[in-house]
């Protein structure tokens, strides 16, 4: 197997020059670069990642920390991150660990500080855990995805505005009795982003003079969670709301399924709106606030590569696009 020394000898240059020519890091005259590349091709030389790391000080690896990817949003976001990193010849080390677990505490306290990454992308970090501050202390370029972004470049949507727009859509249709599915009775279990969506719902009703109608139903942000919460609430005919805002599309779709099983017609008897534009939203004709987590993944990599190229680059906060997508799960109340 050929080595960088063999390539350098064949091209008539030093090993350092050959390494710079093949990695693209550092100035090499174009004629010299072509000569080194021709020598590498002739010798079937393939650069070893460890050797490249030693020569350049870079690992060509980005660490990604996020909740477990069993939810659509995180899976799509990870796909976008991976696509962009692959296009840049970067590897990805994924750490998908549940919040408030001993494994997660160990990850932030001892594992991540010892790992060699060129940069880190942190997804859905909670302010209460001080995790973003722990990542900042590693001294590596850092980008966060989600509404909590103290001290880092970030990509997020305006969660407050998303829920406010969803709720105002129902108010404009004539609904007053609007429930929110996905709030948590225990505030410690409510993610920072979901908490901001709850704020947006409350704010919309308060601005419309409907404070007395605020109704928050405890539910996990999943289809089964939304189904269980809606089934319990909709079973009471006398106190049934005319509309539901889901903290996310999964919870909203669960509510639609529960309504149908109870014989409640959507949207003539119950309007439902979600947030995210999940891949199944079209199938359920769900009105929602659309966003593209895959594009947010691409944007996160763009911000990170900018930070890696210039450690003194100013922090940048990107607000990803989101807009009301009206389908047929919402209508004026009867």
What would CATH call the architecture of the largest domain? 3-Layer(aba) Sandwich
User: Which strand order do you get reading across the main beta sheet?
Assistant: 2-1-3-4-5-11
Shape, principal axes of CA atoms = elongated
Number of strands: 12
Report the helical percentage: 40-55%
User: How many H/I helical runs?
Assistant: 12
The chain-level structural class is: alpha/beta
**CATH homologous superfamily designation of the largest domain:** Response regulator
CATH class of the largest domain: Alpha Beta
* Count of individual domains: 3
Can you put this structure into words, describing what you see?
A six-stranded parallel sheet has the order 2-1-3-4-5-11. 44% of the residues lie in helices and 16% in strands. The model has no long low-confidence stretch (mean pLDDT 90). It is elongated and about 85 Å long. With 334 residues, the chain is of the alpha/beta class. It has three domains: 4-56, Orthogonal Bundle (434 Repressor (Amino-terminal Domain)), CATH 1.10.260; 61-157 and 293-320, Response regulator (Rossmann fold, 3-Layer(aba) Sandwich); 159-290, Rossmann fold (3-Layer(aba) Sandwich). The chain has twelve helices and twelve strands.
